[in-house]
Amino acid sequence: MEETRYRRGLETARKLDEENAARLDEALKGIAPDLYRYIVEFAFGDILSRPGLPVATREIVTLSALSAMGTAQPQLRVHLNAALNVGVPRAQIVEVFMQIAVYAGIPAALNALYLAKEVFAERDAKGLS
Amino acid sequence: MEETRYRRGLETARKLDEENAARLDEALKGIAPDLYRYIVEFAFGDILSRPGLPVATREIVTLSALSAMGTAQPQLRVHLNAALNVGVPRAQIVEVFMQIAVYAGIPAALNALYLAKEVFAERDAKGLS
Amino acid sequence: MEETRYRRGLETARKLDEENAARLDEALKGIAPDLYRYIVEFAFGDILSRPGLPVATREIVTLSALSAMGTAQPQLRVHLNAALNVGVPRAQIVEVFMQIAVYAGIPAALNALYLAKEVFAERDAKGLS
Amino acid sequence: MEETRYRRGLETARKLDEENAARLDEALKGIAPDLYRYIVEFAFGDILSRPGLPVATREIVTLSALSAMGTAQPQLRVHLNAALNVGVPRAQIVEVFMQIAVYAGIPAALNALYLAKEVFAERDAKGLS
Amino acid sequence: MEETRYRRGLETARKLDEENAARLDEALKGIAPDLYRYIVEFAFGDILSRPGLPVATREIVTLSALSAMGTAQPQLRVHLNAALNVGVPRAQIVEVFMQIAVYAGIPAALNALYLAKEVFAERDAKGLS
Amino acid sequence: MEETRYRRGLETARKLDEENAARLDEALKGIAPDLYRYIVEFAFGDILSRPGLPVATREIVTLSALSAMGTAQPQLRVHLNAALNVGVPRAQIVEVFMQIAVYAGIPAALNALYLAKEVFAERDAKGLS
Asked: How large is the ipTM?
């Protein structure tokens, strides 16, 4: 059953961003390999694989939370890519961050938008949506 | 045109939660009436009225941001009601808050869920969705 | 194996604070029962049961994090009891919170200490350490 | 010289809010008396007694910081009184909190204004400015 | 009247930091041009142009809020320049950030001061106050 | 007696990380030299020198608080070195940050672990524990 959670989590992680799933594994390998497993099992396997919300909506939830917190720019970058990979349109991402200005202040919105601009340009260069 | 923003904002505010719009007006009347106007014009009229995201998705953005921040319980209560008023199912709200555990920690998720439980009970008592 | 994680988590949760484990179950039952299971499995079963840190040190980590964040007073209360239940002396808890003043500011320290004072008094009334 | 810091700090603390200085002493007496001394010496004696900013401006700094953080409502209440005691006009406090909406979001501004409204009413009842 | 808000906002934005106003326009042009307009209208036109606080005090409010939050270094840099442009003396800015140590912790104060040191050096190189 | 606090603070600061104590002095010299003195006296002399907690535990408190806050990466780097200098094993630091995932979210844990990985590599290169 653990096996199931891990496999389901890995599948979800790869669907969101295959490259990032590998990068996270690599980054944690030398320092906290168990945490990599917990993240795959709990975050991706338990929570993000739940059927109660469409995966695109889940990415909007994550973008909203991370941009409002303002303390997780590397993870915001990951989920900008994930959101685009699962079909959230760029224009919707921009709407989300504009709305964050109301609840977390204009700097939070701007910092998220500056990062989005970078990610959009990187993806343009790779021919991605 | 100001007039337009104000009217559009008020319409959006009332669609989200008529009672709360009146309560906010009342609360700010004696202390910062101009802020009430700015909130109607900017938050509701400029941002929340934009067509780029369905209103239900906008409420999910707000619930995500406020629960992750953990510093705005009164506004989280308001938007729990607003989300339900515009048709976000209770089960989806619970999914949003469960997902917040991954990004902002389990206490943030729990405190949002405890509040949701209260709001759901209040609405049950009034026969609301 | 899931069974193992759940049982190990429940054991750890009960060792920290039996009453609170039951209260959490009760609180989430009607709204997000799966989250209760994830918390037992991931937070208590995966992380807090790891042998790499003494349980008393783990409670000091939690008290430090929650008091610095300042957004999780209900959970800070739970872990004040848990810390005392597993043998962290009251005087050490007070030292932790005084130190938080340096890193998160004096208000963060004061609000944690005020809560500690309440919890200490409640436990005095019950004849607990 | 310690004596000097303590005396200078106490003088500043009392000038800001005599009642609150006594209440803080009382609150910390049974739990962290040394912290009371450090707060008087460091916060009030070292920092808030420095001549580089007028005391009214210092209170505006504190109100701005605490309202933006949103995790220190008890201390925000104390400094609302202190600000008024040292002559910051109510209208200026309202301006400060309205401005916080831009940088920390509208909920942060609203929660500070709701508290200000309470404090203003309490002071009206006592015939204070 | 919209026209008035926009023009008033632009005038205020330029008085604070002409270069930054242009940079913000440029940065948002390709991604969220409407947000640029809202920021000019709401932040600069509605709030920062209000007569209730001297512009130098408004910059002190902003520096206090942003340094306490610790999540908006790019905006803190902008407002360090704005504060100096409207006549806040460097020594007062240093006092503000030292005071932040009391309320948001010593790291918040240090990170703001390190940034101030950079901005002061950049302005020295340009012969600015 | 001030002299005592300053000397005691400097001794503690040097025991934690001699190089960093010098760097902090250097960094603040040109901008806020009094803050350097207050930090030595209050943070290091008053709080971190108190006998109520072992110095290794104090570093665990600091690592927990700073990683949970997520707004003080430069200071987290300093205290990673300090913790290792006073004998906290690398494996325990990793445990602390993994536990932070539960209370402040997975991004907070990851960002602290990425920094730890850097610091561990820097120390490997210098032959330090």
From this structure: 0.97
